[in-house]
Amino acid sequence: MQRPTIKTIAQETGLSIATVSKALKHSPQVRPETRAIVIEAATRVGYELNLHGVQLRTGKTYQVAAIMTAPGPKQNEWEGVEYAQLLSGISWALEDSPYRVSLYAVRNFEESQAVIKQIVSLKKADGIIISGTRADDPRIRTMQAADFPFVTYGTSIHNAPHAYVDADNEQMIRVAMARLVERGHRRIALLNPLSDLSYGITRLEAYRRSLEVAGLPYDPALIAHGRLTPAFGRENVLTMSELSNAPTAYICANEASALGAFSGFHERGLVHGRDAVINATDDLNVSQYFAPPITTYYLPISEPSSLLGAYILRRMEGEPPEALQTLLMPNLIERCDDRLNPNR
Amino acid sequence: MQRPTIKTIAQETGLSIATVSKALKHSPQVRPETRAIVIEAATRVGYELNLHGVQLRTGKTYQVAAIMTAPGPKQNEWEGVEYAQLLSGISWALEDSPYRVSLYAVRNFEESQAVIKQIVSLKKADGIIISGTRADDPRIRTMQAADFPFVTYGTSIHNAPHAYVDADNEQMIRVAMARLVERGHRRIALLNPLSDLSYGITRLEAYRRSLEVAGLPYDPALIAHGRLTPAFGRENVLTMSELSNAPTAYICANEASALGAFSGFHERGLVHGRDAVINATDDLNVSQYFAPPITTYYLPISEPSSLLGAYILRRMEGEPPEALQTLLMPNLIERCDDRLNPNR
DNA sequence: ACAAGAAAGTTAAACGTTTTTATCGTGCAT
DNA sequence: ATGCACGATAAAAACGTTTAACTTTCTTGT
Q1: What is the 3-state secondary structure (H, E, C) of B245-268?
Q2: Contact (CB, 8 A) for B283 and B302
Q3: Does A52 touch chain B (CB under 8 A)?
Q4: What residues contact B72, with CB distance under 8 A and at least 6 apart?
Q5: Does at least one atom of strand C sit less than 7 Å from the CB of B46?
Q6: Beta-bridge partner residues of B208
Q7: A8: nt with nearest C1' to CA
Q8: Alpha helices in B132-191 (DSSP H)
Q9: Mutation target among A2, A57, A81, A270 for the B interface, most CBs of B within 10 A
Q10: Which residues pair with B106 in a beta bridge?
Q11: Which of B81, B67, B72 is closest to B229 using CA atoms?
């Protein structure tokens, strides 16, 4: 038995395939009664839309390309692990649609740029989701120039308005800084992502403004930019803790770098809470298992990821990008009091 | 300007589209000279094969379905993070082929079963990659019955031969057990994955045989099965450490449960190396950042993942599954001496 | 009563490819 | 010379769907 097509239904009902096609897509050109007949026949024979036919005819691909920047296989570092949850969240958001997530793993920014150009020009997908946005992101410009639907995980600063989802990094840093200052800290280190990333810039600016508000000096020695691996967290603690005026608090941009910071503490014999404290942004709720558990700003990654999926669907349906912009505020989870130890 | 098709090339060369099509796929029916003309014209006009046409005509999808079992969005646990690297490894292995990775995120085993049935019967992909195999896995039977190409990450025990890639769990446990016994340990806990998973069974059997070899008794109280989250590791340390005859070593099946075990140590005031030790299987090279770093059996996940990609390609080309079976031995990385502390 | 227009279907073409079948020379044996 | 096989190419159909253009029937306002 062959797989049933609209032709099967046409024969079954005595209608033409055109009518069947229209009926199935709820065209107003077909009467409700006729549609009912078609639907009945369709379910009876177990009809399922063959996407290949649609794709050839309409050029639609029913693919959403998810661009995933992951370090190459030689890089044995704990990095980008949040992608797993990100991807599954997106995938679930598309579950009831005909769209599928098509994965494009790239090694770096340049490659992502090339891949996106290809997807856009050869129309290998109907929509694109990217992350790791830069302040002025050429990929965004490529997609906007081609009027190609996309959503970014992360904001941009100099690009024209586009659909995005991101954590509210500015607010988060302000709250985190105010809280630490209030608890007596005067030397606060910021472990930031790579400096060309948009959210790195946002965080740094919020950090500087928070220092101003608190009347504290800005010291570049307390700022680090890099790939957010454990190694990055560790090395910066090793360096900064040797400063004559070492930081008493570290704000880590993710849980991987926070874990590395702990490793640095261990190496230097620093005790969390006594010598310094670590706060972190956490997507995976893993810092609760650190020893000791630390204070985090927790944004369950399922939230932004399902939004990304929902937004790309709406964007592909033509909704304007301005309506699809969300900043999510992470939840403060206080696991330590984080007060400056006066007898340090 | 429209995207060029074989029709464009036909006009350009004065040949028929049939000849062009055959020339492009190196059919012996077309003369080398003619083929050269076609190839030249194709590159000149910038021709790219339109997959939609092929798909409709041949039924091929050029999709490899990767089934990813991830906990639902409500589950805020660090689980399945290795999927990110697994997926990127697969994606890279397919890079030079026309195949793409199509992601299917599912919440549990039953759902993965349903999804696979659908992919197979509606031919939504040309090949499937699954993980989390069971001793007797119904999904494998489904795919085998339909003669559908697939590769599993993980072995099965009662199924007919199929293509797989896995860590050599048996060997790993034997080595790990022998090493701990040699270092004086007599009470060794095994934190194992869910008991229906094939590799859980393999590990348990290797564990029991190792005990026999060492002349040690088997105590069910030292065995735990569960989802390999940090919570799982933590809770089992909390429980087992209260036993009258508590374990002096814990073997954790992944780094997430090892991190959780550390959290349990911290809670109970246990000191690693003094009261007990933790060994783990590590895919992500993250245990080096634990405090202290622990001994692990490290298998960089890039190895199995690129093999999975390579194998599914070969399987789709018709290579017999028996030729596509690999067990990879993790590397022992000794970061502690792990000797039993006599003054415990 | 009749033209105009709407409503509901039908016909047919089209998307780009592969593949079966047909065609047409050409060389070869008879 | 004639027939035949063969090699190379062309013609045409097919995959499943959408959609522009057309036909038929029914409504409606004058």
Answers
A1: CCCCEEEECCHHHHHHHHHHHHHH
A2: no
A3: yes
A4: B107
A5: no
A6: none
A7: D16
A8: 138-145, 169-182
A9: A81
A10: B69
A11: B81
Interaxial angle between packed helices B82-93 and A82-93, expressed in degrees from 0 to 180 and rounded to the nearest 10: 80
A31 three-state secondary structure: coil
CB of B58 under 7 A from strand C? yes
Q: Which two tokens stand for residue A78?
A: 């704990």
- Strand-pairing partners, residue A54, are none
Place of tokens 């060994």: B279
Three-state secondary structure call for residue A106: strand
Task: Give the pair of three-digit tokens for residue A190.
Answer: 């910021």
Residue with token string 């029916």: B29
Spell out where A24-117 has E strands: 63-69, 100-106
User: What is the model's pLDDT at position B75?
Assistant: 67
Cross-sheet strand order for the sheet of A325-328: A325-328, A163-167, A150-153, A127-131, A63-69, A100-106, B100-106, B63-69, B127-131, B150-153, B164-167, B325-328
The pLDDT tens digits of the residues spanning A262-287 come to 999 999 999 999 999 999 998 888 99
CA atoms within 13 A on the CB side of A193: 22
CB B164 within 8 A of CB B151: yes
Closest among B201, B207, B288 to B249, alpha carbons compared: B207
Query: What tokens were used for A264?
Result: 């640095």
How many angstroms away from the CA of B112 is the closest CA of chain A? 13
Q: Return residues 226-265 of A near B (CB < 8 Å).
A: 230-231, 234, 259-260, 262-263, 265
Phi, psi of B221 (to 5 degrees): -65, -15
pLDDT of residue B78: 77
Q: How far apart are CA A139 and CA B132, in angstroms?
A: 36
pLDDT over threshold 80, residue B81: no
Closest nucleotide to A5's CA, by C1' atom?
D16
User: How confident is the model at residue B283, as a pLDDT?
Assistant: 85
Chain A nearest-CA distance from B342, in A, is: 25
List the alpha helices (DSSP H) in A59-168: 82-93, 109-121, 138-145
Contact B122 A48 (CB under 8 A): yes
Cα distance between residue B12 and residue A246, in whole Å: 72
Phi-psi region of A224 (alpha: psi -120 to 50; beta: other; left: phi over 0): beta
The neighbouring-strand residues paired with A165 are A153, A326
* Nearest partner of A262 among B9, B231, B263, B41, judged by Cα: B263
Positions on chain D within 7 A of a protein C-beta: 7-21
Q: What are the tokens at B143?
A: 């795919």
What's the confidence (pLDDT) of residue A74?
A: 66
- Ramachandran angles phi, psi of B25, nearest 5°: -100, 20
- With a cut of 80, say whether residue A78 has pLDDT above it: no
Contact A286, A255 (CB under 8 A): yes
Contact flag, residue B7 CB and nucleic strand C, below 7 A: yes
Q: What phi and psi values does residue B319 have, to the nearest 5 degrees?
A: -65, 140
* Environment class of A191 (CB within 10 Å of its CB; exposed 0-12, middle 13-18, buried 19+): buried
Pairing of strands B249-252, B164-167: unpaired
CA-CA distance, B210 to B173, in Å (whole number)? 8
